[in-house]
């Protein structure tokens, strides 16, 4: 197996975006693609590594760019500043995710009828909002994502299957918010699952997360279990 990568430029609302595509070049026919929506820092090494990991599973990995020009924040202050416009304008967020979806479908390595999306933290919210927009894709997976509804998706049916992988003690997405999301997904007639991991907080998949005061701590068991659950889900929705 040899994993190849290339940068892909695309645009949304006049912003030049730069994704990274990863695929196993031993597979010649078009195959399923999985978009990776990054956490609040932007399309960093963590997101690109996840695209590589997906390529090693036989998918085309697509680490998308939310901020433009592959910008990566250097710390919490800058990360929050970069994320803020999308939290304030969820239609902008949804449009940027749809632009990424349209771009990945155009790649020659990709079977355009079989596309899913995964996301981490802010990226978890991004993939949930992509589903909330009514976008036609096979499935979305949110890892320790944010749950607050966008306010512009009422009465829209969710077509993508939804898997939420969540730390039950996450201070940024409380049990009450988790229940609210479950009710929201039910009203939208979604095919949904929520896996909640006990004794687990935010950013549990990130090995460098170690700030209990902020509520971000890596947890190996939840990381391993959530990746396995994602793998099972993708096998089901992309078969």
Automatic annotation (TrEMBL):
Alphabetical list of SUPFAM superfamilies matching this protein: alpha/beta-Hydrolases
GO molecular function: hydrolase activity
UniProt superkingdom: Bacteria
Dienelactone hydrolase domain location: 21-237
Pfam families: DLH (PF01738)
Protein name: Carboxymethylenebutenolidase
